[in-house]
Amino acid sequence: MSSSGDRKYSSADFHRTPPRPQVVMPERLAHPQVEQEGPKDEYSRARKHPVFFVDLPSHAISMTIGWLDPGQSSNRHRHTYETLVYILEGEGYSYIGGRRVSWKQGDAVYVPVWAWHNHVNTGTTVARYLACENAPMLQNLGGIALREEVPDRGDQLGDAPHEPAEEGAVQASGAVQASGASPVSPDRHGSSEGASSSVRFAGGGAQ
Hints:
Keywords: Dioxygenase, Oxidoreductase. It comes from Chondromyces crocatus. It holds the Pfam family Cupin_2. The chain is mostly beta strands. The chain has a domain of 134 residues: Jelly Rolls, CATH 2.60.120. It is built from three helices and ten strands, in the order H-E-E-E-E-E-E-E-E-E-H-E-H. The strands form three sheets. A five-stranded antiparallel β-sheet has the order 1-2-9-4-7. A three-stranded antiparallel β-sheet has the order 6-5-8, with no helix packed on it. It has a two-stranded antiparallel ribbon with strand order 3-10. The chain is globular. The N and C termini lie far apart (48 Å).
């Protein structure tokens, strides 16, 4: 039988609820020098800027570090997990769901579930941010951690053609159809699945 930290439960395991918590000690408790290992190539290409992954055995939260050069923008994207972004250095803004949110070193920014967004460095030095997401929790629940990328800056696209089509876009299966592509796949943190320059939603046209 798998250890309690690795076990997958089903309806038949309803009775497996111990009366008190148990400590499950993983082998790894630290990830030294995250940024020195280099960015995740596939994910960084999809996001259009370097992104570094924290590799620790958390089941509910993830942590990533992003770099933006002066004047650089991430592409426009959205996902079904929510994100908190802490600005380690630099200044700029994020375009979130049609709203421009300015930030500088020491600020924190919230990105709601499924809101189109991108991040822009308006300073003269590299901007670095730390992002915390609940992606692993959704991944472990199965099939509901979705991510979608479009290779454009959100502030240049505007939200008028996009946001009104959101209502009713995600069906019960959680599938979102990309024009000329298969439905968006569950996010695996490191895959570039779901990248498309033209996205079609259920009940809406090409966006």
